[in-house]
Inverse folding.
């Protein structure tokens, strides 16, 4: 029978109705009654418990993984309101999805990585394809998490990591991760994907540096205090208008940091992008989702419309050339919250999305999330990205 | 622009040092310019976003107007407006309250937005006196009441729990200035507020709400105007329908009365005609009857006379034979003469004026006796006669002033018709069928009803048309006179000013219904002398 997947979305303001509606639409689109696995992406306006319960009830409590985001994508519909939920239901006899959850990212992301590995180690098979993960976008230290996961799994081959970090509505207060009946914050949910299928993916950002190279002169772990010997917040003010720095959620949408891309991924882009989810006025510092060392070169950067559109086109071409004549069974899109309504008007956004889906397969079940960070491998290495789109097709 | 162009100044020659400085300054200038451009771009985008938002709000409001125009249903209008508050203006909750016409209170008309079950049941019961302090500004002509998150005014904060909103705005909708008939309340709980449109002083959403309110009240006005027209039209139509019904009812009555009149007239004239004929026939018939009886005796006497006569054997044998035949013939004449006599007597009944002593008779007793009489009569006439008798007597049937003998004749005839029909069906259907007769009475107040029902084969329409005609019968020749029903009709309708009707279904039943007034209408009986 192969794989039947379908995606449904709802905007109903009542979480009980919205959850049921999205799930029922997904089941109808897949043409199935009982799914083997469910992905659920939702925005944070909903009472999360009522929403998850409704989806669980409508999907016969099939195993589920998901997270909150700044918006959700279902097919060509990308919604960044506070009230939208997208559900993907999957029934398959060729693919297996095993989920696990861990929390406490803030205190110890590495330990969370080990916990996930312990729970999923026995599920790793020769035909295991990769791991889809959603971690709290406010607290995930990706490098530590990946280190913990890999040290515990001890695989002799590269297990590619895909996904993103869960988000809220740019309030940077609380994000959610879902695993079966569980809802956590400061957690990470992972899905181990195995089976007789292949993966095609592409990673692309759309940022350009503004001005010259600068150097991190004082930092600790993933916290930056000084750039070029100046307090980091003063440096940022150079790039922001008036009191924009006080409206942090807006500031981080218009400004990000670019790091020189490592040699091994030179073909990808000259830069890897990082955003600055939090600042600390008292300490005069900002944090980024990965670690830095003193002396690292950075370029203050901004998103660029044209580069984003061109980049999405490149994603479509790359995936299409990998797929060849095969059809994708399903697609996951992890797109930065800063690449949605923050840069594009609704119409432009759906045009870009539609073009991408036309390229990869207009009828492929397609689900996506607007995230605070994106995870996708480049050149055989897993990377954390910001202001980036990661698109993963299972075929 | 690549940073690799910048190298420390000390590494170059003097000439290139100034060149490098110049480049550095130029680079700095360019980079500042880019920063400025970027910030301008951000500002531009914000303005554009803002304009987009406004455009879309106007578009949505326009769409709402179109939807309003396509409905005249108040509930639909309020639902559309509430959905607009939720989905376009992005408030968490929305209520409409309506002023009760008979009391100085507002009560809930529409609830929308996500409430848990307990909340929505309690809010559904919300009652807000028009005199409540929170509403006072509306009655003073202020166009809205705002309760912001930091509001401390007790008349406003006390409303929070009642309506389930921590920040809210109340707008009057419809009615006169300073005297609204409806209230729109929109707002958020503290928990959900960050995800919703905030309630703020002079916010754009307030403008949206104000626009919505004016559109909604226009739509409601239009709808109620239309409703009023509709009601007017409907009540007119209803009146016309009622009159038409009355008219057709009285037409029906007229037609039955006419039918009955024609029937009565027909029977009356026929009655008179037959009575005349009967009188004329009665005398010759008497001769026939008397003389045939006498002749029969004479034949016997002739035998006696001839006894001593000297006749040979053959002749004696022949005369005996002839005498016997003669006697037989005469007996037939006597028999049929009697039959003719009974027909004539029945015919004469038709012309009787029905005068005579009326007396109060107990209906149930009368019907009961008739039933017994008919039953025993039938058993005597026909051996093996078997039928189930049922009585359904109304204890309140009471008495009526009647010519009891005449009514007994009517009942006997109806019952024996029933017996006949039931037995006929029995002969056709066999053991599976049980013949039955029901006699029922019922008080109708001023009159009393008697029903005789049999489960025979029913009466086909062509028989029904003619069965009240005198001499109409379907019985084999010699068995019935065909005068039973026509006589019954005379007695009931003419003599008693009553009513006789039949209800029948082929293969199922026949029921005759006789209605008799309890007291004789003055002069009626004499009308047909
Ligand atoms: N209960 C009944 N079921 C079926 N047919 C009936 C019934 N009552 C009357 N009829 C029909 O109406 C005809 C007329 O009835 P009516 O009583 O006037 O005369 P009759 O019964 O035929 O003769 P008579 O009354 O002299 O015996 C009947 O011959 C019969 O065809
Ligand atoms: Mg009869």
């Amino acid at each position: 029978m192969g794989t039947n997947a379908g995606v449904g979305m709802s905007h109903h303001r009542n979480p009980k109705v919205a959850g049921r509606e999205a799930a029922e639409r997904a089941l109808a689109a897949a043409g199935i009654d009982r799914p083997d696995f469910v992905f659920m992406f939702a925005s944070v306006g909903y009472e999360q418990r009522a929403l998850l319960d409704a989806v669980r009830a409508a999907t016969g409590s099939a195993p589920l993984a998901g997270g909150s985001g700044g918006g959700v994508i279902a097919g060509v519909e990308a919604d960044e309101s506070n009230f939208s939920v997208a559900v993907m239901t999957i029934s398959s006899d060729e693919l297996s999805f095993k989920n696990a959850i861990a929390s406490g990212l803030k205190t110890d992301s590495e330990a969370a990585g080990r916990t996930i590995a312990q729970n999923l180690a026995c599920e790793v098979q020769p035909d295991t394809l990769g791991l889809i993960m959603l971690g709290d976008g406010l607290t995930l230290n990706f490098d530590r998490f990946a280190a913990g996961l890999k040290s515990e799994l001890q695989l002799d081959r590269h297990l590619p990591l895909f996904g993103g970090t869960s988000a809220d509505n740019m309030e940077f207060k609380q994000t959610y991760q879902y695993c079966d009946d569980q809802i956590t914050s400061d957690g990470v949910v992972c899905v181990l994907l195995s089976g007789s299928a292949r993966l095609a993916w592409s990673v692309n950002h759309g940022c350009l540096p503004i001005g010259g190279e600068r150097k991190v002169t004082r930092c600790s772990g993933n916290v930056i205090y000084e750039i070029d010997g100046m307090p980091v917040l003063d440096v940022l003010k150079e790039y922001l208008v008036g009191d924009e720095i006080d409206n942090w959620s807006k500031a981080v949408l218009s400004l990000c940091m670019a790091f020189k891309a490592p040699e091994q991924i030179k073909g990808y882009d000259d830069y890897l992008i990082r955003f600055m989810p939090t600042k600390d006025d008292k300490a005069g510092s900002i944090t980024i989702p990965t670690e830095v060392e003193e002396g690292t070169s950075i370029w203050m950067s901004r998103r660029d419309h044209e580069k984003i559109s061109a980049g999405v086109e490149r994603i479509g071409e790359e995936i299409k050339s990998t797929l060849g004549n095969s059809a994708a069974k399903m697609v996951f899109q992890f797109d930065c919250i800063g690449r949605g309504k923050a840069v594009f008007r609704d119409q432009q956004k759906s045009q870009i999305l539609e073009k991408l889906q036309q390229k990869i397969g207009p009828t492929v079940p397609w689900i996506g999330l607007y995230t605070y960070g994106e995870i996708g491998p480049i050149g055989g290495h897993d990377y954390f990205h910001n202001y980036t789109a990661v698109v993963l097709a299972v075929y | 622009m690549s940073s690799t162009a910048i190298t420390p100044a000390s590494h170059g020659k003097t000439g290139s040092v100034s060149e490098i400085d110049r480049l550095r300054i130029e680079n700095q200038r360019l980079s500042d310019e880019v920063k400025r451009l970027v910030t301008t771009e951000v500002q531009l985008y914000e303005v554009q976003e803002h304009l987009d938002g406004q455009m879309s709000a106007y578009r949505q409001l326009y769409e709402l107007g179109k939807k309003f125009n396509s409905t005249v249903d108040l509930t639909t209008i309020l639902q559309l407006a509430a959905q607009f508050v939720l989905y376009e203006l992005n408030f968490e909750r929305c209520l409409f309250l309506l002023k009760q016409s008979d009391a100085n209170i507002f009560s809930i008309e529409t609830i929308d937005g996500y409430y848990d079950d307990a909340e929505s049941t309690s809010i559904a019961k919300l009652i807000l006196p028009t005199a409540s302090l929170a509403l006072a500004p509306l009655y003073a002509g202020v166009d809205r009441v705002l309760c912001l998150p930091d509001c401390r005014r007790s008349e406003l904060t006390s409303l929070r729990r009642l309506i389930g909103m921590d920040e809210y705005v109340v707008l009057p909708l419809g009615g006169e200035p300073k005297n609204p008939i409806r209230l729109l309340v929109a707002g958020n709980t503290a928990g959900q507020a960050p995800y919703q449109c905030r309630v703020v002083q002079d916010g754009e959403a307030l403008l949206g709400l104000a626009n919505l309110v004016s559109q909604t009240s226009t739509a409601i006005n239009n709808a109620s105007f239309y409703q009023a027209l509709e009601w007017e039209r409907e009540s007119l139509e209803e009146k016309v329908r009622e009159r038409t019904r009355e008219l057709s009812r009285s037409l029906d009555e007229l037609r039955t009365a006419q039918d009955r009149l024609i029937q009565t007239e027909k029977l009356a004239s026929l009655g008179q005609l037959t009575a005349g004929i009967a009188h004329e026939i009665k005398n010759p018939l008497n001769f026939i009857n008397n003389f045939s009886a006498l002749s029969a005796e004479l034949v016997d006497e002739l035998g006696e006379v001839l006894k001593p006569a000297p006749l040979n054997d053959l002749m004696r044998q022949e005369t005996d034979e002839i005498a016997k035949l003669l006697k037989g013939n005469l007996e037939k004449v006597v028999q049929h003469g009697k039959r003719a006599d009974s027909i004539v007597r029945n015919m004469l009944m038709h012309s009787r004026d029905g005068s005579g002593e009326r007396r109060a008779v107990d209906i149930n007793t009368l019907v009961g006796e008739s039933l017994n009489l008919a039953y025993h009569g039938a058993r005597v006439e026909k051996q093996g006669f078997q039928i189930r008798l049922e009585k359904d007597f109304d204890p309140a049937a009471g008495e009526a002033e009647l010519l009891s003998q005449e009514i007994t004749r009517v009942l006997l005839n109806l019952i024996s018709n029933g017996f006949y029909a039931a037995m006929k069906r029995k002969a056709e259907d066999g053991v599976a069928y049980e013949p039955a007769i029901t006699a029922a009475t019922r008080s109708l107040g001023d009159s009393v009803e008697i029903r005789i029902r049999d489960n025979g084969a029913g009466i086909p329409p062509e028989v029904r048309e003619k069965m009240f005609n005198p001499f109409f019968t379907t019985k084999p020749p010699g068995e019935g006179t065909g005068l039973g029903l026509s006589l019954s009709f005379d007695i009931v309708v003419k003599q008693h000013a009553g009513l006789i009707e039949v209800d029948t279904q082929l293969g199922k039943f026949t029921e005759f219904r006789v209605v008799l007034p309890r007291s004789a209408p003055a002069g009626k009986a004499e009308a047909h002398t």
Remarks:
- Residues 353-529 of chain B form a domain with the Heat Shock Protein 90 fold (CATH 3.30.565.10).
- Residues B 413, 416-417, 480, 484 surround magnesium ion (ligand 2) (CB under 6 Å).
- Confidence is low (pLDDT under 50) at residues 1-13, 523-529 of chain B.
- The CA atoms of residues 49 and 55 of chain B lie 10 Å apart.
